[in-house]
């Protein structure tokens, strides 16, 4: 009898072993933040065919599943893959092929970097990006004289950090046919004593763009691969590129299908007549890796270059109000066209006047519609009466926390204290709208989502300034910040059912960190590092 019981027990054990379900990967012994509806935690999950098939505790998952790959996380923290809700992915890659001017502390340093770059590259047309006169001792726009003297025969176009101003030399001006008499609506060609300074703000920049040599296909592919490598290193598994042409979107699609590009992308279509004409009458395009269902529109310029449109004059420049990049009439007409389609409209709005125009337009053309999720990109300066419009369920604020900590040194000068209180008001926007999508706007800011997290929670820059936090009443909680970088960003893309949380049926995009952002002391957040990044259950970093 005893032998029979032993044999029966043995057979039952063997039978139960054979009943384990086979999956591709099991991840266990982790501290998993699922970011599901209950913000629940788990210890393990199983992956098959690139998706999560089960989430639970380590014991249960190891008992239920046999896997080709078992990954012991050794107690480290796991989050859903980060989503950057507003960036310039392709632009980041292209920047790596030009002069890097990020972090320059003087015009002298800008000149030196250009000189060093040209000594190595001998480029026929020098481009660069990242200068910001607000970071210099003399906080005034530079002028072109030094560039003219050093590079009289080589055209130069240097993009300000926000992408809304160029510093160009005379050779580039001549190639573009720009003179002191040239007039372009929606921006400024700066003059001093009736002569060109080399500074172009917003729409006049298009004249320079037409003469800058376009990257060839090899350079485009390299740019995309370079950007992907950096994004994966920071745990970004999906990026929202805020403004791409049809040709670049098609290239991205082909590289993703060839598995050369593995990052997922929400592509905003640049608002040009050619791009709009190509897409507006088509259905949105969707694959597992690419989602093309929105138009990126520029309402105004940037605050740093005084191109943002304000209801009242700039506090530091009398009778200057900025300029709309698109007229209110054109904005209304375009919005009405997009409202008749399935496409989303994502509009750059910095100044309080621009935000007013965009909010008013959205509310009007979307009246009676549901679940449109149109975004205000930046939503940077809001006049008191206009905050209430963010209660509209069709409107989502898409904001970049590091803008607050980068701009805080001079934003008050531009706005005055009475308007500054309505600027970078992320907590207030969240309370009104129920969700905020968080991004960086890289390469305007750094790629690092840890800088985003710290700026949102602490309202401090990377030097931990100011001590009490900048307008701390608008700080987000850690939970709100993580949601803004994952599930709320996914929601803003109509992708909350496929990504943004670690749940059964969703893409197995996740990251492993060396520390827990939800528990470590606030000033340690910037020290966090991504140990590994996974897309569709496959390690990409």
Which SSEs are present, and which pair or pack?
Blueprint: H1 2-18, E1 21-28, E2 31-33, E3 41-42, E4 44-48, E5 51-56, H2 58-64, E6 65-72, E7 77-80, E8 82-87, H3 89-95, E9 99-100, H4 107-121, E10 126-131, H5 145-150, E11 156-160, E12 165-168, H6 170-176, E13 187-192, E14 195-202, H7 205-209, H8 217-233, E15 236-244, H9 246-257, E16 264-270, H10 273-279, E17 285-286, E18 290-298, H11 328-339, E19 344-349, H12 352-365, E20 374-378, E21 395-399, H13 401-407, H14 411-415, H15 417-420, H16 426-433, E22 437-438, H17 449-458, H18 478-484, H19 487-492, E23 510-513, E24 530-535, E25 538-539
Parallel strand pairs: 1-6, 2-7, 8-15, 9-10, 10-11, 15-16, 16-18, 18-19, 19-20, 20-21, 21-22
Antiparallel strand pairs: 1-4, 2-3, 4-5, 7-23, 11-12, 12-14, 13-14, 17-18, 23-24, 24-25
Helix pairs in contact: 3-8, 11-12, 13-17
Question: Can you put this structure into words, describing what you see?
Answer:
With 541 residues, this protein is α/β, with parallel strands linked by helices. It is built from 19 helices and 25 strands. The strands form 4 sheets. Strands 8, 15, 16, 17, 18, 19, 20, 21 and 22 form a 9-stranded mixed sheet that branches. It has a 6-stranded mixed sheet with strand order 3-2-7-23-24-25, with no helix packed on it. It has a 6-stranded mixed sheet with strand order 9-10-11-12-14-13. Strand 24 and strand 25 form a beta hairpin. Helix 3 (89-95) packs across helix 8 (217-233) and helix 11 (328-339) runs parallel beside helix 12. It is globular and about 85 Å long. The model has no long low-confidence stretch (mean pLDDT 95).
